Amino acid sequence: MSVPTYDALKLPSHVKTILITGAGGFVGQKLTELLLERFPSLRIITTDIIEPPTFTSDKSRLRVVKADLGDASQLNGIMSGGSEANFELGYAVNVDSHVALLEAAHAHAKATGQEGATKPVYVFVSSLAIYGGPKCRPQDFVVPDETPLLPGTSYGVEKNIIELYAYDYGRKAPSTAASSFMSGVIREPLQGIPTVVPIASGLDDDMLDTMGCYVTRFKTVIRNIAYAICMPESKFKKGESRSINLPGIKVTPRQMLQALEEHGGPEALKLVSFKVDSAVLAICETWAGDYDSTLFQSMGFEVDDKATGYGLAVQDFKQELAAAKK
Ligand SMILES: NC(=O)c1ccc[n+]([C@@H]2O[C@H](COP(=O)([O-])OP(=O)(O)OC[C@H]3O[C@@H](n4cnc5c(N)ncnc54)[C@H](O)[C@@H]3O)[C@@H](O)[C@H]2O)c1
């Protein structure tokens, strides 16, 4: 599959309004744009601690709410996620906000008599950081059903807590799932900005060839998150996990650098330097490099082409940069 397809994006008939949290962020903005484009009669509410962008002046289609979702008093039926910059903040944003949002969605469903097929759909963007432990080193291929969840970071623990919590609420909602250098190594040099690769000491470091990075073209991620909203609940096997590993492809840091040179030329590559940061390396060593997504593909989630997917992702970003300059 080299391009995401959209024909399978059909919202369940009871979904008339979608709340998007973190809507000012990387994923939230693109998801809002896709949903606005695909579903003309859908009402969307976007929220973020910063004012999310207004993509349309039609207030009946998009309402923008600025709110701190770590502050339950601002809730009124909403909530979101963020980062683990510090322990307390990580839990407030990644756990407490979802606990409050799930409670609010549950109370709303109860008050309006939404149950069974008409209950609210809750799509939580999790992370591969939920795995970890001896079976998840960067050289490993993860088979989800055979891999214990032993997260090596607070971020992974927080995501894990909410996967289980959302699953439990859903019984009585589908769940979906890197370190910044992995995107920075392309994003920064293509804009003329120097970048540091913190997992290798130089171009001759073996880590550039042995480390697997599980990545997905951004267009495919957004298509798949929208599909998680649309997917019939019957695609989940009874009694089995509600967690979905969004299909990705394995690339090595060396392949990333090759793609950078191909699309940005030798001058882009010159902007990359290497300095091992043991704290970053320790985190990356708790993530596996590849994951079995056969089951999730059979449910309708799409995967990038192994040979061309990464190059296409870099090309997409170059086009975005060119469009932003116009
Ligand atoms: N980008 C990835 O590669 C990736 C991978 C796995 C999981 N995720 C998850 O996907 C989600 C979105 O990621 P992203 O890349 O768009 O991140 P992002 O940082 O671009 O966006 C997150 C948004 O959340 C908002 N936010 C933070 N704290 C808030 C609060 N207290 N109240 C309201 N809003 C708040 C921020 O202002 C930001 O706009 C996150 O939950 C992240 O953990 C992302």
TrEMBL record:
Keywords: Carbohydrate metabolism, NADP. The keyword Cell inner membrane does not apply. Pfam families: Epimerase (PF01370). Gene3D superfamilies: NAD(P)-binding Rossmann-like Domain (3.40.50.720). Residues 18-173 form the NAD-dependent epimerase/dehydratase domain. InterPro entries: Epimerase_deHydtase, NAD(P)-bd_dom_sf. This is NAD-dependent epimerase/dehydratase domain-containing protein. It comes from Saitozyma podzolica. The lineage of its organism: Eukaryota, Fungi, Dikarya, Basidiomycota, Agaricomycotina.
